[in-house]
Design goal:
Blueprint (H helix, E strand, L loop, with lengths): L12 H17 L5 H5 L8 E5 L2 E5 L15 H20 L15 H19 L4 H5 L16 H29 L3
Helix pairs in contact: 1-4, 1-6, 3-4, 3-6
Length: 185
Amino acid sequence: MIADYPDVPARLAPFLAQWDYMSEQLLGRLEGPSDAEFLWEPAPSVWTVRERDGRTRPDASTWAPIPGAQPPRTLAWSIDHLGWGWLIRADWLVGPHSMVEDDLDWPMTAEAGLAFLRAGLSAWRSGLGEMTDADLDTIGRSAYPDRLDPTLPLLDIVWWVNKELLEHAAEIWYVRDLYLATHRA
């Protein structure tokens, strides 16, 4: 595996291999969703994406996050969450360090959502490809000013971001399977 990634630090190679594999698997399972499927609400109370004040934003108002419980999510919320998060993190990793949460609208169509996801996957992966061993040990290297980023070495953030990909890929696959099982022609 390390031989497949000769231009990155050896301890980053397994994370990149996992990222590349999971990205490919996720995108492969996301071929062809309709806009109806993208916005389908699998429960009466969900996290989704809605238009508010002329902008499309995540809507978690129906169920505030509480420890130990989170509501079901629409494909729109999960896909857009990933694209949005990685675009912002990539900006703070290798970009101008200026992007904030309100800079990005969350897409409300399947086609735009998948393009948003692909852009986020690519931006974060590209930024990681530039990292050195010293970068991986640098506390706050990702520079994202929110959450744990300023207090952890970059390699810990890489681990956490990979965990997010695994977690949300699983929920995306489940919602797709559930939609297809309940909307057969």
